[in-house]
Amino acid sequence: MSSSAQDAIPQLNLGSTFGALFIGVIFAAVLFGLTNVQVFIYLQAHKSVGITFLKLVVAWLWICDALHLAFTVYSVYYYLVVNYANLSALTEIVWSLRMQLVINVLIIPTVHFLYVHRIWKVSKGRSRVLPVIALCIVAALSSGVGIPLVWAQYQVSSFQGLIGIEWSTYLALGAATFVDILIASTLCYLLATSRTGFSSTDSFLTKLMCYIISTGCLTSVCSLSIIITCAVLPTTFVFIGLQFLVTKLYVNSFIAFLNARYYIQANPAVDSPQFYERHGVYHAELRIGASQDEECQKPREVPEDEVMHITQPIQAVMP
Question: Stretch 43-67: mean pLDDT, rounded?
């Protein structure tokens, strides 16, 4: 038994250390179950179309999420089953616990860049400066800062060594929280300035903004909780157990964002011809054999780009 292990074992509290990891894995498994439901809903809603970019993205996130759960489950299994009563092994960081950090790097920046892609689509035809600024900030903070800091954590071989690099946890999660707030506020601003004057569409946009804020707050609150517990309880593994959850929340929040139309249950007439006919912006189609009187009774024709302007914010955010 090494001297570092001997120093750490007398202070080891299984309840606040590996017990916290065990509880974290349980909640992570629950969130992975929610991810499966989200993926099923998305695929069912888009089963009529072939393979698309977003379908590949959803599949990629699901695979990464499944690997993340597998690594965390094996980590807890390694400590509590394989090395049961082997206290010297409890001070070392198993390889699978390091690998879940790699999955974090794959998931969190990916989700951030996907949100930036949504910002670019919503601002299409309007401002080009805003998505460029958002992209630069996300690239600098999410990738330029987060990846090197996670790499510094990956190189630590013992739990005792984590105490010396607490700063990396603060900076990585602080940067992720700032990016979350930036993305949520940017999307809400673009949607708020995309109001059309139609009550149904504007009501839907308001609900969508509330949905974006709530999902963004969820990941931000979890990241801030990790920072607080790491600062207040540095000798426990509560912050590691919470870290198991933040990746799952990112995957769930983005796929739920894609499924927002299903959850919000907007008026189905918003995108239907009846909606535009009722508001006088329906682009009427010519029918073969229609009488001259029926043609005269049809609403006026409107350029297609005017019709697309009404639903562009919704279609851009939720394809």
Answer: 91
